[in-house]
Amino acid sequence: GFEARGTIISDRWRSQVNLFYSEHRGEITRVPVRCGMKYTIGEQEIGNAPAICSKEQTFNQGRLTVKIVFSAKNGQNLLTAEDLKSICRLEHRIVRKCKNFEEYCHKANGTQHCCPSWSVGHYIALLNGNPSCLNIDETEVKKASSLLTICSKYYRDGTLKSDCWDFAKNGKGVGRCSQVPDTCTTFNAVYNIFHYLTDRHFLSDGSNSSLFLRYSLVLVPVKENEHFQVAIYKSYLKDDISDGNVILSGYELSKLKSEIFNELMLADLYLSAIAMLVIMFILWVYTRSFLITSLVGLIVVSSLVIAYFMYTIVLGIKFFPFLNILTSVILVGIAADDAFVYIDIWTQSMCEHRAKRKGPPLNEEERDQELISITVDTMKHASLSVFVTSFTTSSAFFACLTSEITSIRLFGLYSGLSILCMLFLMVTWFPAAVIIEQTVFSRFCCCFEFMGKLHETIFKDTMRTVIDKLVAWHRGLFMDFLPRIVIKLRYFWLLFFFLLATGGIVVATVKPGIQFPTSQDFQLFHESHILEKYSLKLKNNFHFETTRTSSFPINLVWGIKATDTGDQFDPYDMGGLKWDSNFDIASKKGQQWIVSFISRLKKQPFFPKDKKLGKICFIEDFFAYMMMNCTTNDRICCKDSTFPYNLTIFSKCMIQMQCQRIKEIQSVTDGAPLFDANGRLRAISLKFESNVPFTWSYDQADRFWKETESWALTEFNKAPPSANGWFISELRFYDLQKSLSKGTVISMSIALAMAFGVMLLTTGNLYISVFAITAITCTLGVTVGSLILMGWKLNIIESITLSLSVGLSVDFALHYGVAYVLAVDKNDRKSRVLFSMTGMSSAVTMAAFTTFIAGAIASQSNVLSYIQFGQFVMIVMSVSWVYATFFFQAICCILGPENNSGQMTVSKLKAGYKKLKACLCCANADLDHYTMVRKDDSTEVKNTVRVLYVKEDN
Predict the structure, then answer these.
(1) Do 331 and 423 touch, CB atoms closer than 8 A?
(2) Which residue ranges traverse the bilayer (predicted)?
(3) What are the start-end ranges of the E strands in 787-891?
């Protein structure tokens, strides 16, 4: 699901892949039935490699599934016979001794013998006629070193290629690598050693001083199977392994990382359980209620289960990405936040009621009346806060549905549903539990005695004293010290945090700004994890990983529509082909346009000037074929036929040419005409390499896409309907980057707008809503700036966290804002801020602290998703608490509304509506004032007959 879906590039890519699948299944073919031959395009046969298994095709069309890197202890030179033999022994111990190795290994031509692994020792043995790398000696190593030193310059200047040796002839290929000595081309050994098996610094300048091998890589020719790779990892790779002076430095098995990641994602769920237990313990200490504490945990679990039911059964979504598991971390923090707020408001309401009554209720009736009154007051305030925090956070999650990336969409959907479920349970179960705690449980004295003894057992003697001191310090901090420094230093807080937010915004938008990842490798674990060592630290040491010399391919397709017919929420659903019913390249207009199109194509700046389309362009081949001299056997498919050709001649000659052309080996990705079972031409594709070097860089890929797409749209818009097509290239990673950039901004904007709307509806005060959004914006600036300075780049997890930052930042400012609006003394700003601080600062701080703890525990995982999410939660909780407590309250203390200023009451809304209506009526009247009616007496009179205008004759 880590891919864009529903974009132009995605739709075209999936349509192209479906075209390949249709050809693979035999639904369409590049070999017409009339050719009388069967030609099924599939994957290249791995087993057809030569006996020594040295072709690059041995590794599944260039996909190297198992890479193992070795180095010497203390950084010594590996280019010794003993060390190279140690590498061979280690490779044999790690891979070849693994169960079922012979089932998954690639085998040599016509034998049942597994191909040998590519290693420096293997090629030295091969060049010296040794049967095994375990038999090489120091003399052979020195001989090979001399050969490598001589041949290094040919590799560096690019004259030594990967195909200099012709395995079919067992000699140097005719016309290949003519400038390279024959000894440098034998078995392509020298090229493979430099390109694949040695580090980049090895003989980098061709001198003896650079004849130092720091890293040596081994490539194992095995099929790609996740179960086999996991077996290797768990049996041999989890522990340190060495042989003599050689140690295992790192490795990459193509599917291992994702498989281990899936296992660890589930295994590390215990961290969420620990976070929940810690938060519940804090909640129990805070509330001294086992019932309420247990209920919070039950609400979290129930919310996740109900949301999962709605997600899978009600909505029928099959794909459940691993990101959805992160919802539990957020849910624990929000549930604790709501519980702290409700309990604090309940306690304050009880104190206020008993202060008015001058004591507790004396009988059952008074107790019931008090309970009803306290519940009403608490629900009036707490339910509002709980609703707003839950609704704004769920809105931030649901805003992720605007993303074009499947995993982000589904994460936003599941998380949003979970929070709404929790909201429903919090406003139904939780108040009921508090009432039960105050009524039913109070009648069971034994229970209270037991709970009292339990508290005494846990918090007795010294611990009880410490707890009492902490409670006293807690009251002094939140009831006196914190409100006092906020009010007294309000101008300082306002200026300081405004400047800090400005700095964060500059960091986020100007320099260094939000960066895109420069590699398509998706990091799954912490950088210290062994499974990330190769991609993060070792990969760039090898030429084949860093010197991609290819350019952006351009694939032009006609005959199918670029439409994604699959399920947008299921990345495994590729959909099917949608044929273009208007396609008819055999029409005369189609032929004329395609000929002129090829001519214009060659003049484009991205077309390689020094190359011809050649055999990859069957269209040019066809028209060249039609210009051949006629023979007695063929008077139709020759130059006697007049261009544009009629339908019969075009179809007959296209099939005839293709029957001859198809005898040559073609790749499944080459351009070709595609026919259905009846021999009807259904689609054509044209593929060639552009002269734009391939890169993962967003800016360069963006420039290539925009320029090429602009040209293609211009061309195809001018094409007749029978020749309309589209273009695609290798741009999926760019599409992902583009979707992340656009989707993050859109989801953050929607979340901010929703937060403002909800704030305005719940507080009913325009000024408070504006101040809160200002504080949230500043929080976002500091949070995003901090993450960028920590080295974060915009990827899947980062995009989600930025989208969620709005929902998680709004809670604390909203609690303070609601309390400010509900303050009793509305005439004085300082009094309202004091009321807001004393009433909510304790609950807000505890909520921030518990969520911070959840983030800190999650960051102890080995899985990068948990680590980054935990870091984000810690940062956003800290920053949002600081800005809500100091910055937002400082604004309210200086500019906050007094009395009912800015309050959006129903009467004010009605009055505003009447004024707006009156203004619109006046505007219409003004328009009527200048509307004239022509009369027969050459006068124009305003139709209200208030003014007479006389038209003067010229």
Answers:
(1) no
(2) none
(3) none
Q: Please, are residues 843 and 428 in contact by the beta-carbon 8 Å criterion?
A: no
Following DSSP, what letter does each residue of 218-248 receive, concatenated? EE--B---HHHHHHHIIIIISS--EETTEEE
Q: What is the pLDDT of residue 738?
A: 85
Query: How is residue 664 annotated by DSSP?
Result: S
* Residue 573 CB partners (closer than 8 Å, separation 6+): 566, 567
How many angstroms separate the CA atoms of 607 and 658, rounded? 25
Let me know how long the chain is. 954
Structure tokens at 506: 């500059």
The burial of 38, by beta-carbon neighbours within 10 Å (0-12 exposed, 13-18 middle, 19 or more buried), is given as exposed
Could you say which architecture CATH assigns to the domain 260-511+737-895? Up-down Bundle (1.20)
195, pLDDT greater than 50: yes
Q: Is pLDDT of 938 > 80?
A: no
Beta strand 246-253 with 673-675 is unpaired
Q: CB neighbours (10 Å) of residue 582? A: 13
**Chain centroid to CA 285:** 40
Cβ(245)–Cβ(72) under 8 Å?
A: yes
Query: Which pLDDT tens digit goes with each residue over 642-690?
Result: 888 888 888 888 888 877 766 554 544 566 788 887 878 888 888 877 8
Enter the tokens of residue 96. 């070849």
**Residue linked to tokens 């518990």:** 850
Question: In the numeric block, which tokens belong to residue 744?
Answer: 């993050």
Model confidence over 333-344: pLDDT tens digits?
788 888 888 888
| DSSP letter string, 728-747 | E-S-HHHHHHHHHHHHHHHH
Q: Which positions ≥6 away from 266 have C-beta within 8 Å?
A: 325
The conformational region for residue 63 under phi > 0 = left, psi -120 to 50 = alpha, else beta, is beta
For residue 416, give both structure tokens. Answer: 């949003």
pLDDT band with cut points at 50, 70 and 90 for residue 459: low
CA atoms of 919 and 927, how far apart (whole Å): 12
User: Token pair of 410, please?
Assistant: 């589904």
- Distance (Å) of CA 31 to CA 458, 493, 591: 82, 76, 21
Angstrom distances, CA of residue 454 to CA of 274, 285, 288, 449: 22, 12, 10, 8
The ranges assigned to domains in the chain are 8-36+551-729, 66-253, 260-511+737-895
Nearest to 811 by CA among 387, 467, 294: 387
Over range 698-710, report the average pLDDT: 87
pTM of the model: 0.76
Closest CA to 203 of 334, 113, 110, 77: 77
pLDDT category of residue 827 using cuts at 50, 70 and 90: confident
